[in-house]
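Batch manifest line 539
LIGAND: flavin-adenine dinucleotide
JOB: complex structure
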Amino acid sequence: MVPQLSCDVLIIGSGAAGLSTALRLPENLNIVVVAKRELAEGNTVYAQGGISAVLDSADSLESHVADTLSAGAGLGNEAVIRRVVERGPENIRWLAELGVHFTSTPPTGDSKLHLTQEGGHSHRRVAHVADATGREMQTTLVDVVRTRKNIQLLENHIAVDLILRPSKAGGKRCVGSYLMNLESNQVMGVGSRCVVLATGGASKAYLYTSNPDVATGDGIAMAWRAGCRVSNMEFIQFHPTCLYHPNAKSFLVSEAVRGEGGHLLLADGERFMDQFDSRGELAPRDIVARAIDHEMKRLGSDCVYLDISHKSAEFIEHHFPTILERSLSLGFDMRKEPLPVVPAAHYTCGGVKVNDVGETDVAGLYAVGETAYTGLHGANRMASNSLLECLVYAQLAAEDIESKITHVSMPSDIEDWDDSRVTDADEEVVVSHNWEELRRFMWDYVGIVRSNKRLARARRRVNLLRHEVAEYYANFKVTNDLLELRNLLDVADLIIQSAQRRRESRGLHYTLDFPQVDVNQCQPTTLIPDNYRPKGQKV
Ligand code: FAD
Ligand code: SIN
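JOB STATUS: finished
ARTIFACT:
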């Protein structure tokens, strides 16, 4: 069948990674960008702290590399880190040229940007737009992308699965994807010469998260089902400080608040971070989140407190206008009092295993941004290195696609989506109930502190739910919620399996059964799907 839509490059996801890839590709390519909701929605638009890059003469690439390696607890890939860090400054300039207005400071040294500080960084090196860096970045990217005639934008479309063919060179080739229009509920086949997964992370697998609803790990699950390896899925980052309030929906209180002098306090006003790490509040996130979890459990308290009220009101208003406004709307004035905070799932350090230009194990399929595992973050991502990774891998993938695409022909035989044997779902409650159950047991058993017993319990439950949802998927028409739940269950299974394999505590993975680092386990955890066919191997 002729595909219902064809393009040179299909980009699934419209956050920093997806839109930057689209803008980095040459304008003679016909590109389609797909977004599950409106174009701006995703993790990127909520980013607060900023983007790390070496922009000050007192700083150095070596220092950024060393800090990233150290935050990654021995699992970061030094060559990858170096490549990403080296491309940091040019990517900040690229964003500024597109129209991002970074917060500036009266010139100091050779840097005109105001650079803030965050955990794990030994220098001020985080370029930012007050405390709403993601909003400015995402709206700028969206504005620019809308001016490009070669880029077609499909909002409110969810990718269901990838379309594969045997590759002439052996292995498999990705030739497109099925997309469901969320307004008409129709599924169409899109054929493309190559596909880029930029679907973000999977923190919605957890009950409490800083992420918006779209973060359901769709790209990771689709790639896994297509036969791609995934790595380091046990390393789920919990951000130490989300606002604790029933109506806050895990609103983040940026690490930059601690970077600019904020203190973490217990209910009685006592500071506690120095007992856990000599870097105090600016220790890497895994350490701070675990310390908070420890203190909350020890004292049976619901939250701890983050206090920056010792700084002037003007300073707080200038640096943290978004956080101030949101917390005021919930009844807290951070200029005068500490904010109640708790940890929440924030970032997926692992993902689809890619090479140094973002290619996955399937020919013609790339993964960029939070969906991908590049080797940059190791066992714990350093603050503000994620947006940097999105930008750099978008650039690398776009360069690679440009160099290869002329040799790839347009697929012409995409079958229509067949739903002739399924009916409308009869019990939507099954989906919502299973979703709630999943997110709760992931929080309870696969959270900040794990154990063999908790992981085994979670594995049993995830297997039951996967079985139930697979049956549901086979018999009923797909809906957005069913697709997301199916993906989250696949990803939860990958997280649990990876956590069970790592029989030590390192970075973000902490287990009561193996509380120490084991120097012999200093490699990433890589899971291989049953249908994995290395490139070049006959299918
Ligand atoms: P996203 O921006 O999440 O975009 C994903 C896109 O994929 C969306 O368009 C979504 O609709 C689409 N999508 C998903 N599934 C499908 C599907 N099946 N079909 C079609 N489309 C789909 N990092 C930093 O470096 N600095 C920070 O200051 C910072 N602050 C943060 C603050 C918050 C509150 C959060 C949540 C994260 C923060 N991070 C920060 C992390 C960083 O924002 C993310 O890792 C990064 O933005 C991810 O970008 P992305 O393009 O990979 O994904
Ligand atoms: C924050 O502003 O604390 C988030 C930064 C990040 O996730 O890198």
